[in-house]
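The protein record filed here.
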Amino acid sequence: MILAFDTSTPSTAVALLSGSSRELRHDPSGDERPGHATRLLPMAAQLLDECSTDWDEVDLVAVGTGPGGFTGLRVGVASARGVAQSLGVMLAGRSSLAALARAALEETGAEDALALIDARRGEVFAQRFSLRDGSVEPIDEPVALEPAALRRPGPETVVVGDGVVRYRSELPLGDALVPATGSPLHRVSACQIAAMATYGVLPAQVSPTYVREPDAQAASR
């Protein structure tokens, strides 16, 4: 059984994968704060209880490593490390952008996907992926850039993530396929993180993917 977390965006997502998958989410609305630190482990305990299972039945822990918000990633990865260590199981770190892309490619049948996570500071974290033999493969490296600086995707590309929801009017989307604003394809799914976690490593070997320096360091310059 795989227990998976994602805290790369303001949302908190927890999933269990054992044959079938089930996910619990907290998606903040309006000015509501994310609450990753206070919600993540209680949500995991709630999900285990709802699935009539226990912590000692977890064989692997998986976590979205971003890129994304610095605080959220730090909370998610640290929590996943702690759970994996306490259970004596391996930890799998998987790209949150890849999780977005995998869901979109499977749902739409598009040739490739452009995943965008809101990076704040007027930027997005962006990366392109394709689906090959059931696996999501990166086409390029993740970057942080202003929405208008993004290379225009082709009509065979599906564009997803909270970055496209926030900056849609600024992005050069052309004829790309963009799901409706309320589509779940714009939310990072912990079920996808779990589905990509076929193996793990020692917990200490998993780290967040920041792409750029934290906001606090940039502000101090």
